[in-house]
Amino acid sequence: MKIVIISQCTPREQIVVHEIVKNFDHVTLVHSGQRQGLVVKPQNQAKSGKKIRSQSFLDRNGLRFFHKFHKISIHNKTKHLKIGSNDCEKVTIPFSEINTERGLEFLKSLHPDILFTCNAPILKGEILNIPKIAAINVHYGMPPHYRGNDTLFWAYIKKDFDNLGGCLHYTTKGVDRGNILAEVFPSLDPKDSLVHVDIKTSELLAKAAVKILKDIENCDEIPTGKVQVEKGRNYKLYERTLFHHLGYLAQQSLGLLRPKARKEKIVFYHGQKVGSV
User: What's the whole-number average pLDDT of the chain?
Assistant: First the structure.
């Protein structure tokens, strides 16, 4: 089974990518690079005539610092994970070119059975029809309640710890709207910060991804997953501001963000059957 992974490969995503590369023989990693800045400028802005919100200069540059610090913190705790140079085929394509005609033709040339995305651009148009079997996405959040961007962050600062986790779902039109194949709930400790939650969630997503891909590889019928009935909430990139992050740091330092202790859990959805580990 040929698996093509599209990912920005930041430290937390490398946890998931590392496990897939380790467990499957035919993997191509398409490194999409980093998106430029944090300003949201939809392609249809000019056509719609609507005023589109974007992050302020202070938010954009202040959050850039905190995002960098967050990535470094995760890297320091996971630097033992390395994707060796001979583990899989690697190709780099700019983030902005994934959904272009060039990106489409390039992905077609890879002939994937599974197109697997993990912190990648939202796939559009014909790209979703390229894989022979399915397109699957890793989402750090629990849809439909938390779709879109920074959804671990939003659940955490809202103290919605029951919905703190991630999932794997089929990639369809719409943001994080596809049928859910697995939900992961990381173990929690009252002292856990977002860095700890990110790493624990990534480790469970990696386990779930390997199991789902193995199941698909070894059987003739792929799972249908759990249908998302509710529309839920799609969090936009610009909604997270420097004020929100400073509030998180203040509450964290004062001990006001203390999740209740729980054990880790993965729930798999195979059509009508539900299994958990």
Answer: 87
- Closest to 258 in 3D by CA, of 170, 157, 182: 157
Strand ranges, E, within the chain: 3-7, 27-31, 89-92, 114-118, 134-139, 147-148, 166-170, 180-185, 234-235, 265-270, 273-276
What is d(CA 164, CA 170) in angstroms, rounded to the nearest whole number?
20
Q: What does the pLDDT look like over 203-220, one tens digit per residue?
A: 999 999 999 999 999 986
Per-residue buried b or exposed e for 158-176, using 16+ beta carbons within 10 Å of the residue's own CB: eeebebbbbbbbbbeeebb
Beta-carbon neighbour count of residue 62 at 10 Å? Answer: 17
Contact 204, 142 (CB under 8 A): no
Residue 233 has φ and ψ, to the nearest 5°, of -130, 130
Could you identify the residue written with the tokens 């430029």? 36
pLDDT less than 70: residues of the chain? 34-55, 81-86, 220, 271-277
For 44, counting Cβ atoms within 10 Å of its Cβ (0-12 exposed, 13-18 middle, 19+ buried), the class is: exposed
List, in sequence order, the alpha helices (H) in 191-241: 194-218
Q: Would residue 20 be called left, alpha or beta, if left means φ above 0 and alpha means ψ between -120 and 50 degrees? A: alpha
CA distance 116 to 170: 9
Residue with tokens 């600062």: 157
Which residues, including other chains, have CB under 8 Å from residue 65's CB and lie 6 or more apart? Answer: none
Burial of 235 (0-12, 13-18, 19+ CB in 10 A): buried
Beta-carbon contacts of 141 under 8 Å, excluding residues fewer than 6 positions away, are 147, 148, 151, 152, 154, 155, 165, 166, 167, 176
